[in-house]
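Lab notebook, design round three. We kept the backbone fixed and only want residue identities now. Task for the bench partner: fill in a sequence for the structure below.
Input structure tokens:
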């Protein structure tokens, strides 16, 4: 491995280290976070329990008794809510509408989605995956009616009809209604189809054109969710949990998940097509058929001791024409962050919810890695073997670059004795003359100093693409291989509960075997490739070269086992390739060709030839090239 290759690797390592330092909160931020946690803890003690279990309407158990109010409370509610006062109290009932993919539980309070279960997935603790649950959710319209502020989230709806099935369209629907009279009501209708994660959601407004909102042409709609933890390590999952949104017919935008800010907020005065609350592997999306007129979105990181990751909130403007009878058509996607699945909704660009990088990195993942991965998945069920074959395919594709890099190193190796002679000829104090003589030697030999570095740098986009692909690939989630129980998270072989200062923060409270194997194979690969450098040329460079893999070991200990397994395989294959190259590359023949090139006169460039021709025409003798 030549000096330029080592410098390129160290540069990348330096960037990653600086990035890690920047992401770490300072003392002031930690103090502010502690203050916020104390405040939230105080609020949580004053709030009702979020885990109150509900009863399904189709069970044989009786519903909760209706909460009765005395005359004083009734009068107070009448003053606060007007005609809607009678809906402020009621019985908590729950209705289920489902298909083979999801189980949507709807509450009579607010007529809102109370919880959503994804039937084909389990949490790391083997519990059902619930995207959101209970009273941690807010979902409903906010408006003024007869000068009274009304929020449907806190009012009790009643089913407009039983769960209905449309045999023609093969759809199930559930309607929840808030009815002031037969000709004046608000209705939420939920529609599910077999085999789909998409839920139709229609808001029907009958006789409600006198509602008052901030914007006469839109209704205010609130959506708020506390995101629960599903994966093994909360810190890791939080790095991929964030809020996304798409500007109408434009690009998808999002809040940074890896940030020291506990609160992020954005006011969007223009049209928004959808808003998504996303964690590492699952997402809830609210989509408007005709776009929301505006939006205010907010993300809040919750305390470390909370069972939730973050709180997401969206205030959305729904177009409102103020007709006697109008229906606003929305959709809700509740499902996995699976690129192939989300690409089915490419008109909404939902595939952008999968974090596969930006620019060239995203292109590599989208058009190379993911198609190959999906193609292999059609024939092979073991994802450890799929990663092995994927690695082999990639290494074969990169073989020309790898060979050029090795050949450049071999050329540098045979020139090393002559480079050492120049080092002795131009001792300390004559560095400029030494560099000029070295470059002249390279030029005569026809060797580019960047010949070994450039092919290696061209491979870095692949390494970074894998860095983004594996931790967010839901296909690897809970897939085992060898000793690994879950390729989407770290493969702990030893763990401990005690906090160890610095070590626990930087390395974690476990040892990942694939990370250790990756580190060992990286050091071995470097050692076998270390044929063109010397401590005399680059004091301390060798030490730094071997420290770098240890630094990566600390950085990647908490990452996906699939990622470190890939890096380990790539190192092993590289070692094998270099061994084969060594059998076919004759260093004596390389030196003979270099000496032949050195003996030939240096060919003048076309630019220099033009300069000489111009000089002849002007009657001047061109200067000789030194």
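Proposed sequence:
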């Amino acid at each position: 491995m030549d000096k330029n290759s080592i410098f390129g690797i160290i540069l990348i390592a330096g960037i990653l280290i600086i990035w890690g330092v920047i992401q770490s909160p300072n003392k002031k931020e930690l103090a502010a976070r502690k203050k916020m946690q104390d405040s939230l803890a105080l609020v949580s003690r004053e709030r009702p329990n979020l885990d109150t279990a509900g009863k399904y309407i189709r069970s044989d158990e009786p519903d909760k008794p209706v909460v009765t109010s005395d005359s004083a409370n009734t009068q107070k509610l009448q003053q606060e809510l007007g005609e809607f006062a009678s809906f402020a109290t009621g019985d908590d009932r729950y209705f289920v509408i489902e298909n083979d993919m999801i189980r949507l539980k709807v509450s009579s309070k607010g007529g809102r989605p109370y919880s959503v279960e994804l039937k084909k997935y389990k949490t790391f603790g083997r519990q059902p995956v619930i995207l959101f649950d209970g009273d941690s959710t807010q979902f409903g319209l906010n408006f003024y009616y007869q000068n009274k502020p009304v929020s449907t989230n806190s009012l009790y709806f009643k089913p407009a009809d039983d769960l209905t099935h449309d045999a023609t369209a093969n759809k199930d629907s559930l309607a929840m209604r808030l009815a002031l009279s037969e000709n004046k009501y608000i209705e939420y209708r939920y529609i599910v189809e077999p085999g789909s994660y998409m839920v139709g959601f229609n808001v029907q407004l009958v006789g409600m054109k006198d509602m008052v909102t901030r914007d006469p042409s839109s209704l205010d709609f609130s959506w708020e969710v506390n995101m629960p933890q599903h994966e093994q390590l909360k810190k890791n999952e939080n790095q991929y949990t964030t809020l996304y949104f798409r500007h109408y017919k434009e690009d998808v935008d999002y809040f940074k998940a890896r940030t020291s800010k506990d609160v992020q907020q954005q006011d969007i005065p223009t049209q928004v097509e959808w808003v998504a609350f996303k964690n590492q592997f699952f997402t809830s999306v609210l989509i408007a058929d005709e776009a929301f007129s505006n939006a205010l979105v907010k993300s809040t990181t919750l305390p470390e001791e909370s069972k939730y990751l973050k709180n997401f909130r969206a205030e959305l403007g729904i177009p409102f024409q103020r007709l006697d009878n109008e229906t606003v058509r929305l959709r809700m996607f509740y499902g996995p962050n699976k690129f192939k699945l989300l690409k089915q909704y490419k008109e909404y660009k939902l595939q952008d919810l999968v974090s596969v990088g930006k620019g060239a990195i995203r292109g590599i993942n989208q058009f190379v890695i993911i198609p190959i991965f999906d193609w292999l998945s059609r024939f092979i069920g073991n994802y450890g073997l799929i990663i092995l074959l994927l690695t082999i395919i990639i290494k074969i594709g990169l073989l020309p670059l790898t060979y050029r890099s090795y050949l450049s190193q071999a050329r540098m190796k045979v020139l090393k004795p002559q480079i050492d002679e120049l080092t002795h000829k131009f001792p300390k104090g004559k560095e400029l003359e030494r560099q000029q003589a070295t470059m002249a030697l390279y030029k005569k030999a026809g060797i580019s100093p960047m010949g070994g570095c450039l092919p290696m740098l061209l491979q870095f986009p692949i390494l970074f693409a894998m860095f983004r692909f594996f931790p967010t690939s839901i296909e690897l989630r809970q897939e085992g291989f060898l000793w690994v129980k879950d390729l989407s998270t770290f493969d702990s072989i030893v763990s401990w509960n005690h906090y160890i200062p610095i070590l626990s923060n930087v390395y974690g409270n476990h040892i990942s075997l694939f990370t250790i194997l990756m580190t060992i194979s990286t050091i071995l690969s470097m050692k076998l490739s270390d044929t063109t450098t010397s401590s005399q040329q680059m004091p301390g460079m060798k030490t730094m070269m071997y420290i770098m893999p240890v630094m990566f070991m600390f950085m990647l200990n908490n990452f996906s086992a699939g990622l470190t397994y890939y890096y380990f395989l790539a190192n092993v294959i590289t070692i094998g390739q270099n061994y084969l190259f060594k059998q076919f590359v004759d260093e004596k023949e390389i030196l003979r060709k270099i000496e032949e090139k050195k003996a030939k006169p240096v060919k003048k460039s076309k630019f220099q030839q033009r300069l000489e021709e111009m000089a002849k025409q002007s009657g001047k003798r061109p200067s000789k090239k030194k």
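Keep this in mind before ordering anything: Residues 21-30, 32-69, 532-537 have pLDDT under 50 and may be disordered.
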